[in-house]
Amino acid sequence: MEFARLLLFAWIAATLVSLKLRSAEGRAHHHHHHHHKRGSNKGSPVYQSPARPPPSIPSEPTDPDECENVFDVMTFGAIGDSSTDDTEAFRTAWKAACEVESGVLLAPADYTFTITSTIFSGPCKPGLVFQVDGVLMAPNGPDCWPESDSPRQWLIFYRLDNMTLAGSGIIEGNGEEWWELPCKPHRGPNGTTLPGPCDSPALIRFFMSSNLVVNSLRIQNSPQFHVKFEGCSGILVDKLSISSPALSPNTDGIHIANTKGVGIYNSMIANGDDCVSIGPGCAFVDIENVTCEHSHGISIGSLGGHSSQACVSNITVRNAFIKNSDNGVRIKTWQGGTGSVAGITFEDIQMENVRNCIIIDQYYCFFKGCRNQTSAVYVSDVSYKNIKGTYDVRSPPMHFACSDAVPCTNITLSDVELLPSAGEMVGDPFCWNVYGSLQTLTIPPISCLQDGEPQLVSENINYGC
Question: Catalytic annotation on 33?
Answer without folding.
Answer: no
